[in-house]
Amino acid sequence: MLVFAHCQHHPWSSISPTIHLLGSCKTSEDVKKIHSRLITTGFIKNPNLTTRIVLAFASSRRPFLAQFARCLFHEYHVRSVSTVEEVKDPFLWNAVIKSHSHGVDPIKALFLLCLMLENGVPVDKFSLSLVLKACSRLGFVKEGTQIHGFVIKSGAWADLFLQNCLIGLYIKCGCLGFARQVFDRMPQRDSVSYNSMIDGYVKCGLVESAGELFDLMPREKKNLITWNSMIGGFAQREDGVNVALKLFDEMPVKDLISWNSMIDGYVKHGRMEDAKGLFDVMPRRDVVTWAIMIDGYGKLGLVHEAKSLFDQMPHRDVVVYNSMMSGYVQNRYHMEALEVFNHMEKESHLSPDETTLVIVLSAIAQLGRLSKAIDMHLYIVEKQFPLSGKLGVALIDMYSKCGSIQHAMRVFEGIGSKSIDHWNAMIGGLAVHGLGESAFDMLLQIERRSIKPDHITFVGVLNACSHSGLVKEGLLCFELMRRKHKIEPRLQHYGCMVDILARSGSIELAKNLIEEMPIEPNDVIWRTFLTACNHHKEFETGELVAKHLILQAGYNPSSYVLLSNMYASNGMWKDVRRVRTMMKEKKIEKLPGCSWIELDGRVHEFLCR
What we know:
Blueprint: H1 15-23, H2 28-41, H3 47-57, H4 63-78, H5 84-88, H6 91-101, H7 107-118, H8 125-138, H9 141-153, H10 160-172, H11 176-185, H12 191-203, H13 207-216, H14 224-235, H15 241-250, H16 256-268, H17 272-281, H18 287-299, H19 303-312, H20 318-330, H21 334-347, H22 354-367, H23 370-382, H24 390-401, H25 405-414, H26 420-432, H27 436-448, H28 455-468, H29 471-484, H30 491-503, H31 507-516, H32 523-535, H33 539-552, H34 557-569, H35 573-585, E1 593-599, E2 602-608
Antiparallel strand pairs: 1-2
Helix pairs in contact: 1-3, 3-4, 6-7, 6-8, 7-8, 8-9, 8-10, 9-10, 10-11, 10-12, 11-12, 12-13, 12-14, 13-14, 14-15, 14-16, 15-16, 16-17, 16-18, 17-18, 18-19, 18-20, 19-20, 20-21, 20-22, 21-22, 22-23, 22-24, 24-25, 24-26, 25-26, 26-27, 26-28, 27-28, 28-29, 28-30, 29-30, 30-31, 30-32, 31-32, ...
């Protein structure tokens, strides 16, 4: 920018041209040039100019302009107060406080309030409301209660606006009891008071309490926000959908949020016919409506219905594309998910977001196509997506499932700021590839770096130890989880431990662990144990377990197949025929095994019956 390009307008002695010139700045260097010129001409000492600059740019989205405006405020309006009138007027202070309370550094709003009081600047209701907003954003309950005390002491308690701000603060900080105390002591309440409390109850799952308040609320104070909060709250509960519908029918006026909330409630509880009935009679739909319906059909496995709706849409956004792709992936239509992504890239002119790419990586992982995995990785790098979040986790997982643990490790090592999710993904990949020692070494690295592991970390390491026959390491990992990290073992952890012990031939120890588990073992744990019994020729124990499994999960084919194989390995052909006959009578079919091989860029699928 050329600072002197508009010299004919004399910006150094006139306020409006100076403001215009500052507004056209593109970099902090441009601002510094103008600042220097204002200092040398002495125009910077004009309080009207600095006031206008503060009001115009304190909340600017360009950080260098906001910083400049705030610096002028502190230099010319805080450190050197020029007039008594300026001391008495909190207007400019409130503008700067607002820039912080609504901006990236809300804690500075609290510091400014302290400065106001130190400088004798009167604090009005707007100053206090802005600081309460900052406290609610930061979750500062203690500081918020101090402001609450100041409100009472200063005599501003009677102000309805401030009372509503206090309710909002306590609700945002999860202190519903405090919020209700403020509400109950209010001499007068408006729609905002009621709506804040009702919304707080709904978001905390206390829909009954919200309903009681809704019933007490004067009808003339109920507005769209009130009705929508109640409908949204009841619609999320299976036993509340019909109550939500009753409220929906009683509403004097409905908007898109009302319709979408009701449809979303039906969808969440699998009532797609009811959802479709509302969808068909809606006076107007938005992309959220379509996305809810597509997502609902996808979750119920009705991908063709989802695609039919998707094709009917007049306009699509990224969220709708994500819903369609997610539906395909959930139902194992992985190639179709990639086709939707390709269509989005080539024909819709939409840019994918992080969620889009995570879904695409999941589809490629399930297909096991390494060449496609490498292409997508290059695409992510080219588009400069960060790998510090879930995208990096998905990339590691994809390479592991596509058979290249080397690529997965390179991605992992290239991520600077790793979360425990990245470590878990890498440990899981090493487990799948049978690299138990490397997975266990990663656990040791986590310990050395003082990273806090979670229950998924230990499932991954125990699984890796199981696949690699590392009994000692598995036992150590289990004890480390329980004793050092105080993580209560879940069903998956016990399942891995049973597998570790049973695979190693410690059948009796595995059996004891199952019997001593504080959780009821599921059929997966019993089948794991049964497989080991068969492998280690523990016929009597295995037969008892198999019969127990058939009684417990009578229509799972693997239990019958394991028992049949056990009889066959002992030459008990009569019993083999009996088991096979039972399967035929119950119409139980053995699930085929499935594997993929990529050859010359094409994936070939093989079924083994």
